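User: Good morning. I'm curious how adenosine-5'-triphosphate would be positioned relative to this chain. Could you predict the structure with it bound?
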Amino acid sequence: RQMCIRDRCNIMEEVTLSPEGQAKKALYSAVQPTNALTIGNYIGAIRNMVAMQDEYNCYFAVANMHAITVRQVPAELRKNTLAVLALYMACGIDPKKCTLYVQSHVPCHAELAWVLNTFTYVGEMERMTQFKDKSAKHADNINMGLMDYPVLMAADILLYKADVVPVGIDQRQHLEITRDIATRFNNIYSPTFVVPEGVYPKVGAKIGDLLEPTKKMSKSSEIQTGTVFLSDDKDTVLRKFRRAVTDSENEIRYDPDNKPGVSNLISIYTAFTGKSIEETEREFAGVGYGDFKLAVGEAVAEKTVPLQKEQARLLADKDYLSSVLKEGAAKAYKVASSTLAKVYRKIGFYQL
Ligand code: ATP
Ligand code: LTN
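Assistant: Good morning! Here's the predicted structure, ligand included:
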């Protein structure tokens, strides 16, 4: 249900109401279509996005403009864009409840990012961990977009006045800079942007690589034997878990500082089974690492294999996916263009 209210800036706006008649808070998140998604993306972000969709007015984007900050093969980018959309839906995100769209379909993102650039300092961007990591990884292509990545992300979030942003812990720094930019703008002009809160999973906010568990499992890492993709078949999943690094004790105990490999496996197991850490420790007391790794692999494949089937089913119906994206882009544009118009007015852009 929608109705018009006056927000604190005296602008007429549409809000979605919960069944109880209260205005729902807005939620924003996005995933880059840079490769097949990993169980890290699922545990760190998508799981929370699915769980929160009823309570919030959700906007979920496929962040293809972020993706091009690292060189992409055009045909792959196009394919991955629909694959992320289909995966969102296969995981349970309902396009009737949420706005699902592709970032480049709403031009306001690039436009607001340009404005926000003038409220962001070069030094702040140079300090971003992800920028430093990706610059080291792609030393031949340290482009302006890579450096500007967090400003585009701030534009994404602020356009939709998102109250909450469910992401993995690696995005915390970007969330903090989004809050700083929003506050800076609000202080210079008048309250315009909602200052968003990051929402991170209690367990699994940073799933580690299976071979180097202190490093984030990443969908675009060069060596993929420690990365479990949601698209891996059951045998591949089991093989990857069989090779997972553990330690020289033989105790299944959650202790991320001293036992990063085993703790990472416990986090993955709890995320895929819904069991608690304590239950898991009890369940596997006295069990050897080999059997435990097999059990984790089984739990993962049990969930991911049906997801793959559903994703494939959705991908076979391009007309339906296109209709979801068209509707999503129209809904997103309505909200985004209204925020952008407000920003343009405040900063003194002459309006026709
Ligand atoms: P890339 O390797 O291409 O940089 P990525 O694997 O980090 O990509 P993103 O598209 O950047 O994936 O992230 C999508 C979401 O998944 C974000 O919310 C991010 O925080 C989360 N995420 C990514 N990797 C992990 C991980 N290993 N553990 C928990 N959350 C993760
Ligand atoms: N940078 C994010 C993807 C992303 C995003 C966003 C997440 C782009 N725009 C807005 C939350 C809100 C990442 O996960 N690497």
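The CA atoms of residues 182 and 193 lie 6 Å apart. The mean pLDDT is 93.
Let me know if you'd like a different ligand tried.
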